[in-house]
Amino acid sequence: MDEQAIHRRHPAGPAGGTIPELEVAAPGMVPEAVLQGSRPLVLRGLVAHWPAVAAARESPEAAIAYLRGCERADAPPAVATVGPPDIEGRFFYDEDLAGFNFRREEVPLGVVLATLRKYLAHERPPAIYVASTTLDTWLPRFRAANDLALPGAEPLASIWIGNRSRIAAHQDLPENIACVVAGRRRVTLFPPQQLRNLYVGPLEFTPAGQPVSLVDPAAPDLQRFPRFAEALRHAMSAELGPGDAVFIPSMWWHHMEGLEGFNVLVNYWWRRAPAWMDNPVDALMLAIASLRGLPPEQRALWRDAFEHYVFGYDEGQVAGHLPPAARGVLGPLDEARARRIRAKLVQRLQQRGT
Length: 354
Hints:
Elements: H1 3-9, E1 17-18, E2 21-23, H2 32-35, E3 41-44, H3 51-58, H4 60-70, E4 78-83, E5 90-91, E6 103-107, H5 109-118, E7 127-134, H6 135-138, H7 140-145, E8 156-162, E9 165-170, E10 175-182, E11 185-190, H8 228-233, E12 236-240, E13 245-248, E14 253-258, E15 263-270, H9 280-291, H10 296-311, H11 315-319, H12 335-351
Parallel strand pairs: 1-12, 2-3, 5-9
Antiparallel strand pairs: 3-13, 4-6, 4-7, 7-8, 8-15, 9-14, 10-13, 10-15, 11-12, 11-14
Helix pairs in contact: 3-4, 4-5
């Protein structure tokens, strides 16, 4: 099944629509069309066969016991994000964006699980969240029994554990398949093109490494953030239960909510690019330092240069007039050329005293 066929079968809705869905034919098997696709897709029942999902369907206590049985005895402490009850699970900035409304603590994962179990019956517990914890480091036995086959990808598998939470809309460079193990999740997605309408916060001072939208989708302040109304027109959402998954393509904005007193999600990240390629965010930051302060007419010239050498690159047009041996960085990008570019850039930055 190709990607177009998938989306004809489950078209995206209008404003406030739903994420297209696919009932997987074989649990644990992700269709290649999904892995190569560029549109989000809910995969109902993708990991319904996992033993961890069976435990979660029995009860939160059973899910916690299952995770405790997968712990590595000599694992390092996990990083737990903790906030007071009044943040209602929304881990975010403080009012003046100078700090955050939560703190981080290094504690054994077993202690986090025991604490979450203790608060299961509380109406207003503290917000507790263990984010992006590598399965192979903390819970290797979990992955041995609960895993996905992703042909052609070498993903990093991470686990996310907590009680009710609301994680501000952000985007990630890798492709992402997020699998719900316990609890329910509400996923709200915005296309990458909605960047201008999401009112993104600081690029270098972020709650968890990625810049986030400052708008709370649950209660958007449209007087302060009027363009967010346009972003909502393009939003798609879905509610996922244990065993369901969602494919989030690279750079799609996603707002994630854990809806129950105990929630577990496992996600798989991978890039459709060679491992030697650098992070484009580094190029963005350097471009801000190098180009944004230029006069408008010079910025326009550099926009044309980037289109020629990067975004619209065609080797014949760019370097066809040069002998192949003389094309240097204008030739096809490979690891050796990337290494030379990086070394030259580091040298120039060092010369400027940065």
